[in-house]
Structures are given as C-alpha cells and as structure tokens.
Amino acid sequence: MAGELILVVEDDVKSRKLVHDLLEHEGYRVAQATAGDEGVRLAKELVPALILMDIQLPILDGIAALGRIRDDPATRSIPVVAVTASAMAQDRNKILAAGFDSYQRKPIDVREFAALVRRLIDARAEARGA
Ligand code: MN
C-alpha cells in the first residue's frame, strides 16, 4: 500500500529535508512539523500512519510530545519512532522506556531507515486488517 502519510517532527532543516526526500522517494506523503507542540497538533489533525520524532525539539521535546500523543485515544496507536543523535546506550534505553516504538540514530542509514519505516507501516496495516 503506497502513499501513506508520515509526520516528520524535526527542527533541524537539513535532517528534515533528508528524511522528507527519502520518504517521498519511497512513495509516502509527508507532513512536517518543526517543534514538539506543532507535532502533537498535526498528529491529532492528520492522524498519520507513522510519526518520526526528533527528541531535542523547541517548546516541547520529543518525549513530552510522545506523552501527549499517547494520552489521546485518537492518536494513541500511531507508531512513533524516535530519531535522534543521542547514540549512547543509556539514552536509547531511556527513549524506548518512554514508549517509542523504535529508535533510529542520526545520521540515518538510508536503507535501514527505509526498511524500518516499511516494517512499521506494514505492521500497522496488518493490525488494522488492511
Ligand atoms: Mn532537534
């Protein structure tokens, strides 16, 4: 199934463009937010198939934004992937403990990243009986 909507929440222009271009190349539609609060607002408004969330974000960080997304029944089941430069094992555990579905290090590995996105989108479609 192509053309699913993915929300990218990322304040760094270069990282956002890279992810945007990669996802579009893979055939997805892409919505973008540059701050955590905007990410939460767009998640509720658009209910995307997947959210890619930076951790260090203005106004509301990625972990707080995830909390708000999980608090709302309308957005609770959307898979959310943390995309962050914090590569240390301790940070990784903290991020996964916060409730993210997966974790992706920056700079991203293009092929690994595309495969992860596909896997999560397919798993969600299956869970919904699509
Ligand atoms: Mn950031």
Describe the structure concisely.
This protein is α/β, with parallel strands linked by helices. The chain has helices spanning 13-25, 36-46, 62-71, 89-97, 110-127, and strands spanning 5-9, 29-33, 50-53, 80-84, 102-105.
Helical segment count: 5
Bound molecules: manganese (II) ion
Major beta sheet summary: 5 strands, parallel
Shape: globular
Beta-strand proportion = 15-25%
- Structural class by helix and strand composition: alpha/beta
Q: What's the rounded overall pLDDT mean?
A: 93
Helix share bin: 40-55%
What does this 3D model show about the protein?
This protein is an alpha/beta fold. It has five helices and five strands; from the N terminus they run E-H-E-H-E-H-E-H-E-H. Helices cover 47% and strands 18% of the residues. Helix 2 runs parallel beside helix 3 (62-71). The protein is globular and about 35 Å long. Manganese (II) ion is lined by residues 11-12, 54, 56-57.
